[in-house]
Amino acid sequence: MKRARSLIRLLGKIEGLPVAVVFVILIIAFIITAPDVFLKWRIYMSFLQTVAPPLILGLGLTLVITAGEIDLSFPATVAFAGYVFTWSFRTFGDNMDPTLAALIGLGLALIAGGFVGYINGLLVARIGVPAIMATLAAQFFWYGVTVLLAGGLQAALKTIEDNRVHSVLTGRIYGIIPDPARGRIGIPTQALWALGLAVVLWIILNRHKFGEAVMFIGDNPNVARVMGVNVETTKIQLFTLMGVIAAFAGVILTLEMRVFYPTQGQGMLLPVMAAVFIGGTSMAGGVGSIVGTFFGSYIIGSLEAGVVATGISGFWVQLVQGAVMGGSVVLNTILGRGDIAVLSDRVRQWGIPMRAASREAPSSDLGT
Predict the structure, then answer these.
(1) Nearest one of 76, 55, 39 to 301, comparing CA atoms
(2) Comparing C-alpha atoms, which of 78, 15, 28 is closest to residue 271?
């Protein structure tokens, strides 16, 4: 029993392991129930394509929540950055090289996202407005600004598909996965950008002074000040970084769809937050898991398509999503504390009175 407990504790120290296990079990279940879909490469390439923007957002949000804060404005930042990129490309594209125009649009979009995050950081860190209220107000404000600037209209990027920036950020890498029956299958490059960002943010959170400061602040900001951490400046930098990351996700989404629409980013808030929380990041702050968010995003992103592919009615989608999310959180909690062995002991103890009662029942009957 001691060996089992020590093994569980050791496994619990592996970041993101419980969520990765849930993801593997989920894919195996989909393969068994829908082999025609999940034994082919295209469904997985579709996941890599569609999950990348919310995954990028979830990685940035992980740092914010680890610091004990919250950012509800990132869907509006996605839309605002998408508008800035689209406006820049369409404005400068006729007068200069289209690739240079796209690069200028990308730079301006990232600056716009950083500006949104910087304002959020000032409101939270300097003025003292609660993050949930400041970023909720920012959500409405920047969506309003985007709709106003765009005139409520979507805008197509007709020539962006031939642009080098499009191919680098949201293109396809062919020749790796063979599929002779249905032609070539390309790996979406945005998945590689998301993976690269996950690696960079993991290093920042776990191997850099900034990440150490973020975890100190999330655990106890007063202690962080005593340890020499500039809490206000760190929070401003953190919200600014979140704005830049959200803007990058907005550009990725706009390039992939080749169309900007003023409400893009809506519907991402709850799935992104769910991916962060089931990944093991603590709502109270002080603990964050980049690896957990990575796998959590793919769990959230694959659930709906997987459930529909199995032939189950669409009415079951939310029920299955809730069950998988709940199971992920429970497994993450149990493995993280090393409580599986303790839980099994309690289950056996609960069974002892039941077995004892079943043995005593016949003797009492004979006595009567």
Answers:
(1) 55
(2) 78
Rounded to the nearest 10 degrees, the angle between the axes of helix 231-257 and helix 209-219 is: 110
* C-alpha distance across the termini of the chain, in Å: 43
Mean pLDDT, rounded, of the chain: 85
d(CA 160, CA 181): 30
44 or 158, higher pLDDT: 44
Helix axes 41-66, 209-219, angle to 10 degrees: 70
Query: Is the model more confident about 39 or about 316?
Result: 39
Domain that holds residue 307: 2-353
- pLDDT at position 363 is 46
Residue-level length of the chain? 368
The answer to whether the CB of 280 falls within 8 A of the CB of 332 is: yes
For residue 365, is it within any domain?
no
What is residue 336's predicted lDDT score, i.e. its pLDDT? 58
Residue 181 lies in a domain: yes
> For the chain, what is the domain count?
1
Does residue 122 surpass a pLDDT of 60?
yes
> Tokens representing 323?
């069950």
What φ, ψ does residue 73 adopt, rounded to 5°?
A: -95, 0
Query: Looking at residue 241, what is its pLDDT?
Result: 97
